[in-house]
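Human: Note token order:
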Amino acid sequence: MDAAFTAEQDEIRRTLRELIAKRCGPDEVKAAVRTTAGYDPALWQTLAGQLGLPGLALPDEYGGVGCTVTELALACEELGRALAPGPLLASSALATPLILRLGTDEQRRALLPPLAAGELTAALAVPGTALATALGLAGDIAGDWAGGGRAGGVQAKCDEEGWRLYGQAEQVLDGHSAGLFVVAAHTGGFARSRTLLFVVRADAAGVAAVRQTSLDETRPQARIELRDAPAELLGADDFQAVTDALATTGDAAAAVLAAEAVGAADAALAKTVEYVKQREQFGRAIGSFQAVKHRLADVYVAVQAARSAAYYAAWAAAAGTERAGALALAQALEALRTAAAEAVQLHGGIGFTWEHDAHLYFKRAAGDELLFGPVHRLRAHAADGAGLFVREEVAV
């Protein structure tokens, strides 16, 4: 692994940091999340049209930039600093890679160019609260998380008119504003039980998307209701290919999420350091007290370690050498939780007010761990996969 960034990667970071600093301050974020879309459409058009962010990790034959997961992770790190709301994670890190990996040639040609241009956004719809399990991060991806038999989840049936879906998914990231859904649905009943992925248009008959109230407003979620909705099978009827694609996508998405969390943690730390330099107590800045220095030093070490892990996971995902995304995500989420908690604590009385900017980072830390964690499950599943703890049968 070459730890040095290329000139192109440095330019991506610099350009995004300058743009976000001008267009996405705390006040702009709070205003954007309360709109119908949940983000600033004008900023999204700039990110898509001028910088090509939605197609950053897509091949140029489909209108993409032709970069890798590494560049997408670096971009998300910069967006994470400002907690910039937008469909980039849901569309470009979760749904689009599945279409690229599983879709037929016709599906790729029809769907990927508008996704790369940002004209169309997609969302991954997974039933219940099983997103981390479906992506192979915190549970057995071969389980019945999509709703076994006819009990819950999303069910798929095929008739003379094609595939039809019914059921609902409750925690679909940016689902209220997406034009396309990649839906995980159970089919085959008990005789040939399997989970497949389907493409569903948001404006199709029998499809409804309802925005839900979420702890982290910068990460909007929706409930997707499917009532005999027409769907198109994504790729072939191949359960093994689906699970492989979900696991590969999950690993890359975890690396991107880890980089985004590192950006948020770094920004929370920087804001806290700036505040303790100015806030005075007993005639001196509170940042001069040794106890405060030690606490912030611990946060700094945690953020830097998480950054190294996130960069390595992104590089490994791009190179296809190993899957390190889950562990990197666990470390990054832990660093963000620590940085956000210290920000609230060290801002003192104002830090405890819900309206303070520190709580944007606190909510992001808590919300991401609810969606993609918790941290101990990410680590436990990675340890099980690596065979670190072998259970021995004891004869009685």
